[in-house]
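Ticket #4471: complex job returned nothing on first submit. Input attached below:
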Amino acid sequence: GDSVTQMEGPVTLSEEAFLTINCTYTATGYPSLFWYVQYPGEGLQLLLKATKADDKGSNKGFEATYRKETTSFHLEKGSVQVSDSAVYFCALSSLGGTSGSRLTFGEGTQLTVNP
Amino acid sequence: SAVISQKPSRDICQRGTSLTIQCQVDSQVTMMFWYRQQPGQSLTLIATANQGSEATYESGFVIDKFPISRPNLTFSTLTVSNMSPEDSSIYLCSVLWGLEQYFGPGTRLTVT
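Support reply: We reran it on our side without changes. The output follows.
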């Protein structure tokens, strides 16, 4: 079945540091890939997405590239801010077949950015 | 995008009781989903709720424990029945909008 593996956390960085959160996946067919962010006490927000190989999703300075050859979708940001402190979830959606459009989530990575 | 609201936002319940969580969407959507997020964990899909049909439950979740209603294209409810402390979680509804899922703010449930 489908699965998503994220780098173990938590991750603690200083403001303006470079961020990478690794995400790899296993899926049949050609899934769509997503990063969601959950700020403290809130629900999930869609951060970015990519629907086919070599697509780059980007939003709010974050970006991730759909790498089919390495089955990866790593999240990066060049300069993090304190306001980026949150839990980040990598997810995939396999359309069609028995899995329909359900999302499969990774374990989540807690990011803390210190001033 | 779709805007989703949930009620209640949080509740503390006694074991053995039931709680019904409401999910309201500002647009008509075909597919709605209910997820559970246990403390410090990722999200697990409970069931998919399409209007006009029975909900489809994932492995490990049963209708008697988590009955779902989907009376129209903008509303759904999830009931957590005969609660135990292990049911303490955040429950989130989501909707499929194009190729993307949008989530409600969640209902934080504590069972004592």
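The CA atoms of residues 34 and 53 of chain B lie 15 Å apart. Closing as resolved unless it happens again.
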